[in-house]
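ok trying again, last paste got cut off:
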Amino acid sequence: MNALNLEEFTKTYTEKGYDNVTIREWAANSVSELHTHEFAVHAVVAQGEMWLTRNNQTEHLQIGDTFTMDPETPHSEKYGPSGTVYWAARKFPKI
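nice, full thing came through this time. structure:
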């Protein structure tokens, strides 16, 4: 799979049981403070770069890099000087 092909990314992760894929766009040098989500995520950076901090560890992610996260994982994000776009496959808990 080409990591930067949205159609293939969406197809792959919906087949793996993810509920949807969203395109997340962030302004240059913006910050998303410590927070959690109710869903699991698998994401790929499509444009720019970002820094993801969780469990007191920071990862520098660039185009083509991926990350996964379980539901309710505390994390923060900082976005690069050109802004950041990533595609996020989300899997919500079944009720």
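cool. The first strand starts at residue 20 and ends at 26. The helical segments are 6-15.
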